[in-house]
């Protein structure tokens, strides 16, 4: 699973930045996460 990282946190399920890794919006493939990260200016990080 992949998450989008921005500044000092991640993009949460509600679309806001969060530091809580339990509320992170997860993407099943790196390709989907990279497309989203490109739109918002974040980067992709593999989670567990």
UniProtKB/TrEMBL annotation:
Superkingdom of origin: Bacteria
Annotated protein name in UniProt: Uncharacterized protein
Species for this entry: Enterococcus caccae ATCC BAA-1240
